[in-house]
Design goal:
single chain; alpha/beta; six-stranded mixed sheet; two-stranded antiparallel ribbon; globular
Length: 302
């Protein structure tokens, strides 16, 4: 069991599960902000805000083996807002994900070392400013231009659906992985993301979950300067299921919302579920978890 030393007694005491969760989240945050500060370049805000989310995904939800990051049936994680790449580098380092080269050969070393993080955004580092596929194992898609990652995630979901249809047999599932794509306001503004979301709805891809960091801010200022549409209504129109987590620090609520995504596979889209109605606390953003749920073939054919 992990222990923590109190300042008052200087004696080890058992660390509670909640304390360990918070320690892990804070470690992701501090690794990220230290790397940005060292590089004098980068985006510290999103890694700080979304550390609870990625911790919940990677520790409680995703099926991913850090020792075998090319396992074919692993869940896929796509960071569409790739400017927040330190979020991914921190997680890959802390999980001990092992390196695999472009030829899918295991190299027996970490995918992202602490030295790579010390040289974040520097030439030769395995912690570049944006995730690059084939450069670092654990990166499922190159994400630079906003909207590119969520669009790619739809293609990944289509590939999984094709593989499952072709190779799975009754009581013998070979492929059944989910795809989780994290995105921000910029991804929602881009046309390519809207087109991909529309296609995902049309194809009824129930293996795909987009997690929208609705933080109301851009470089220019508040998103209301140029972006006021109702995102939830738009995705409901596409045929997606939309859930809301009001506090991005609440890992239990985040896990609960993702559990709804898992449990509604193969059903028609339910009503909008509002998860966590309280406003965000401590300056945290809210999360819109947008998870596609399958329609019947009869509905699609009409």
């Amino acid at each position: 069991m992990s222990t923590v030393v109190t300042a008052a007694t200087n004696s080890p005491q058992p660390m509670s599960g909640a304390q360990l969760d918070q320690l892990c989240i804070n470690c992701i945050r501090t690794l990220s902000i230290d790397a940005v500060q060292q590089a004098k370049s980068g985006h510290p805000g999103t890694p700080m805000a979304l550390a609870p989310l990625v911790y919940t995904l990677w520790n409680r939800v995703m099926r991913f083996d850090p020792q075998d990051p090319i396992w074919p049936n692993r869940d896929r994680f796509v960071l569409s807002n790739g400017h927040a790449s330190m979020l991914l580098w921190s997680v890959l380092h802390l999980t001990g994900t092992r390196a695999v080269n472009a030829e899918y050969e295991r190299l027996g070393q970490p995918a992202v070392s602490l030295d790579d993080i010390r040289h974040f955004r520097q030439l030769g580092s395995k912690a570049p400013g944006h995730p690059e596929y084939h450069l670092v194992s654990g990166v499922e898609a190159t994400t630079g231009p906003l909207g590119q990652g969520v669009a790619t995630s739809v293609g990944i979901a289509i590939a999984e659906a094709w593989l499952a249809n072709r190779y799975n047999r009754p009581s013998f599932e070979i492929f059944g992985y989910n795809i989780y794509a994290v995105c921000g306001d910029g991804c929602m503004m881009e046309g390519v993301g809207s087109e991909a979301a529309s296609l995902a709805g049309h194809l009824a891809l129930d293996n795909l979950c987009w997690i929208y960091d609705n933080n109301h801010i851009t470089i220019e200022g508040n998103t209301r300067i140029a972006f006021t549409e109702d995102i939830a209504a738009r995705f409901l129109g596409y045929g997606w299921n939309v859930l809301r987590v009001g506090d991005a620090n609440d890992i239990d609520r985040i896990e609960q919302a993702l559990d709804v995504f898992h449990k509604t596979e193969g059903t028609s889209p339910p009503e909008v579920a509002r998860v966590g109605k309280k406003p965000a606390v401590n300056g945290a953003s809210s999360l819109q978890l947008i998870a596609r749920n399958i329609r019947s073939s009869q509905t699609r054919s009409t």
